[in-house]
Amino acid sequence: MSKNPYVSYADLYKSDPLNPNYAFYYMNETIGDKFNAERKEVAAFDEKKGKEIPVQEVAIVYDSQWQVSTNPAARIKYRGEVQNGKPEGLGILYSDGKPFYKGPFKNGKYDGYGQYFDRMTFDLENYTKYSRPGSVTPLQGLFTYEKASEISFTGYALRYEGMYKDGLPHGDGILYAYGKMMPALKEIDQKALAEMKSNMDKRRRSLSIADYTRMNDQHRVLRVQYEAKVMDYLNTWQKAHPLAKITIPEGFALADALETYDMPAYVRDHHMNEEIGKKLLEIQREYQDALVKEGLEYPTVSLVNDEVEKLFVHIPFIVGTFSGPNYVEKGTEYSYLGNKLFEGEFQGLSWYQGKQFFTDGTVQYEGYFNDRNEYNWRGTLYDSYGNIVYDGKWKDGTYHAK
Q1: Which pTM does this prediction carry?
Q2: Which pLDDT tens digit goes with each residue over 278-337?
Q3: How does DSSP classify residue 217?
Q4: Nearest 5°: phi and psi at 228?
């Protein structure tokens, strides 16, 4: 197994979650070496070598291929070798400046080992309200962070790595299934909201009207002091560095950063440097610490961040043999808990025939499944000790003796 320069994939995740090697280290420690030679070859490609050229996807008889475009404003750009007006050899495709394919081309089509990055959006109503100030939270860290609001995080993440032929996944590959974490993320999100409401209700019941009013007034005072401290620091820094190109933001931008605890985006959007970023995070932490100390805010942020970090340390994935972008022939699916879920034949991305496992790796069921991964037709169900619970016919997940 290739040496991981970090103690474990979890340490790499915590120290540098934007590092694209995170998924690779995670995969090596989960299933052993895979694609390491190919990864090194792709990584060795100098992204800064040569210039970006506009390209377009052109339909041919049963497929499509990339060709050089005459439109200089084309949204898709390519950096790499070109032959006969088409990508050839190692190269990278960009969409609006974001790389979405890295790997080799043959006659304008993906061919050989490649890495495909896809746009991901996670809609969570309450997540940003509980983000720990200054921390690189998973939804901002594991993905190339683009934008945050009170309802969603969007970014690019490694979606597939593996073999391609004639422009499509074909052969050994790994599909990273981030979307399978959504139910667990929503559960965490709702859990944090419920705890916050419960804490607020308890506080209201335990306080007199006068105390409650006083605490709200105190909250407003601390917030005004916080915003004033930020603006004073920025204005002082700007005077000391008159040639710097930072933007002193409007008050509403600062208020939004405060509500979402998204100071990194605040710093980036206003062209501030690392020195400024560190100072603003320090001021923001002081503000939240003061709220918690005065009993004005409950540390619900710890709950949601810790839970999400546990979730994102693992990545749900399918490793197997592919014959198309969403078609696995045979393979093994792993959960976001890092354990093996299924091994066998697939239809599309659904289980078809094979073994389902308990979290300890013992077989739970062996047989056929429908397109919702429910027991179907014929199969055998086992208990955790390996004893047969039922052997026979199934229909949509239930016994079906007829």
Answers
A1: 0.76
A2: 898 888 878 878 877 777 765 555 666 677 777 777 789 999 999 987 789 999 999 988
A3: H
A4: -65, -40
